[in-house]
Fold this protein.
Amino acid sequence: MANESLVQSKVLKYLKKLEMEGHPIYYEHRQAMGLSYKDGVPDLYCVYNGIHIEIEMKDVGGDVRTRQEAFERKCYNRGIIYIRPDTFEEFKTFFETKIIPRLKK
C-alpha cells in the first residue's frame, strides 16, 4: 500500500501541474470510506477535454477485487477509459501518448 499511496500522490501532482498549465482537465481523488465511498470504485478519476478516465492505483502485483473488476467492465461497456497503473511512469506515458494527443486533433 505504501507504493500505491506514493504513486497516487505523484499522479495527483502531475494532474495538478497539467491544470496549472491550462490543460482542460478536472480530477478528483475519492477518499476510501468517505461520505460517498462505494466499494470497487477507483481511487481517482479525471475528465480531460471531455474524456472520462477512471484510475485505479495498484501496487505491483496487487490483487484486484471482484467489485473492481465489475466496475472496470461497466466502464468498458459505457466507453469510459479505465486504467490500472502500478507506477507513475506507466500512468504518465499512457496520459501523454493516448489522452493529451486527442486534444490536438
